[in-house]
Amino acid sequence: MNMLFDALVAPLESRSDAVLIRPDNSEVTGEQLFALSGQIANVLHDAGVKPGHRVAMQCEKSVEALALYLACLRVGSLFLPLNTAYMPAEMDYFVGDAEPTVVVSSIKAADQMAPICANHNATLFTLGENSDGTLMDAARAAATDCPVAERGPDDLAVILYTSGTTGRSKGAMLSHKNLLSNAESLSEAWRFTSDDRLLHALPIFHAHGLFVAVNVSLNVGASMIFLPKFDIDVVMEKIGNATTMMGVPTFYTRMLADARCTPENLGHMRLFVSGSAPLLAETHREFEAKTGQRILERYGMTETTMNSSNPYDGERRAGTVGFPLPNIELRVVDPETGDELPKGEIGNLEVRGPNVFQGYWRMPEKTAEDFRDDGFFITGDIAKFDQDGYITIIGRSKDLVISGGYNVYPKEVESEIDDLDGVNESAVIGVPHPDFGEAVVAVVVPKSGVAMEADQIISPLQQRLAKFKCPKTVFFVDALPRNTMGKVQKNELRKTYATTFQA
Ligand code: MLC
Ligand code: AMP
């Protein structure tokens, strides 16, 4: 058996209908996607990829990039997708840490990736947006038939990096069972069927676009309108042919700001799902007022995929993330004692279930720190259950900013800022932003007698860090507010700069 291949990939072989619809409306049938993934699997095989090896990908979203994921499942290797915004210094860390056998990069990044791959003994292939690059050259010459590796429920399928509070990114290891159990639960909870056509505008290098959107669609034999990114004009043009859409809250605020956000254009949709960041109750209500559609909000994270969801039938309550999914236990505990708290009380949210990951890649101590003895994983989110069992995410105990659905760990950005000439120290915070929900802001203390401009911080950071992690603005101060223990009071800073991006 190969758990995920059998459930998600094998059924494609007999599908002559469209599974993917490209932006130019050309269709990719199941048979074609299956054959393409077989060809890519042969390329990986010939490059020495064995079950358990890692295959990293940093390239633009495309049908071929998706086929690479399916090929990895077939050869039993671990798929390791990476955000296209990552800079070479970040890529060097990921490749060094995960030690992939193969790296597939975009054509434009190949010159920067070559020395990184040489340094870490990885074979480099390229994949462009137009079915081009060395991966496709080799795939076209390869056979479509390729053996399927044996993979059981506990074998790993994917490593997804998530940043950490210490500033070092951690690779979350997800097994076949983790991913399939979640895809099956969500398909059922959200009533997905082969009649569905999902408007797919999310990136496929994160849990939302890959494990929720793609895995759920493949699991039920649905089709996807596969767009390279969220572009409001393209989304509004294509949505008439879709039945469902999944997005981060920024998708919905951008749609709300558009004149085409009407019942005529959106009323036919069966389901809109939101997640990855808090959807403001106000956005939920406005969307319903404008379109008649009640967005279904759910809650998850890279380490656990999806944990809870508002009901499909029944009240989708604005500002809440609904109920635990079947077979998943969620509890709210006292941060000091670890004791479970009664409904209505606010505490740390912990989760246990078949969805919870296998630990952080080569970080056993970090893994142990984040799990309780009884197997519950400490999410780092602060939440409460209301009397009807709905969960509300109140905040986070982890120092994290979520900007447009991307996570930014302040520690990583602060370390880069503190290394700059003229900087004494810094604090990075998230403040409300009308488009991204939260935006990254840096508060910097220059060395005594040094005068600095924002660009002296932002420009060098942009050479080292993905753009979404870079501060949108910088404030200079003489000293950071600290409590009696000497800890920086980020809450004070968040209050001080709360209206930075408000009209
Ligand atoms: C782009 N930029 C961002 C940004 N995205 N800055 C902060 N936060 C972001 N999320 C930068 C760009 O580099 C650009 O910089 C400027 O901001 C404006 O870009 P844009 O053209 O407006 O952005 P766009 O390309 O439209 O992207 C915005 C977005 C995208 C929201 C569509 O970020 C996106 O697709 N986010 C989805 C993230 C996601 O999938 N998260 C799921 C994680 S999984 P400049 O300087 O060049 O102008 C997870 C688990 C779960 O969390 O529960 O799902
Ligand atoms: P990531 O590490 O990218 O998977 O991000 C996971 C984090 O996103 C969670 O721990 C939450 O803090 C946040 N998150 C995801 N979905 C929601 C939601 N619906 N509401 C509030 N926060 C969310």
Task: Please tell me about this protein's structure.
By secondary structure, the protein is α/β, with parallel strands linked by helices. Among the domains are: 3-19 and 26-152, Rossmann fold (3-Layer(aba) Sandwich); 190-294, Rossmann fold, CATH 3.40.50; 401-496, 2-Layer Sandwich (GMP Synthetase, Chain A, domain 3), CATH 3.30.300. The protein is 31% helix and 24% strand. It has helices at residues 3-9, 30-46, 63-75, 88-98, 110-119, 134-140, 176-189, 207-220, 232-238, 249-256, 263-266, 281-291, 364-370, 410-418, 454-464, 490-496; strands spanning 18-21, 27-29, 54-58, 78-81, 102-105, 123-126, 156-162, 170-175, 197-200, 223-226, 244-247, 271-274, 296-301, 305-309, 323-324, 329-333, 347-352, 377-385, 391-396, 401-403, 406-408, 423-433, 437-446, 473-476. It has a 9-stranded mixed β-sheet. It has a 4-stranded parallel β-sheet with strand order 4-3-5-6, with helices on both faces. A hairpin with a 5-residue loop joins strand 18 and strand 19 (391-396). Helix 2 (30-46) crosses helix 3 (63-75), helix 7 crosses helix 8 and helix 10 crosses helix 12. The structure holds malonyl-coenzyme A and adenosine monophosphate. Malonyl-coenzyme A is lined by residues 202-203, 206-209, 229-230, 248, 250, 275-276, 300-302, 403-406, 436, 467-468. Residues 162, 207, 275-278, 297, 299-302, 321, 379-381, 393, 396, 402, 407 line the site of adenosine monophosphate.
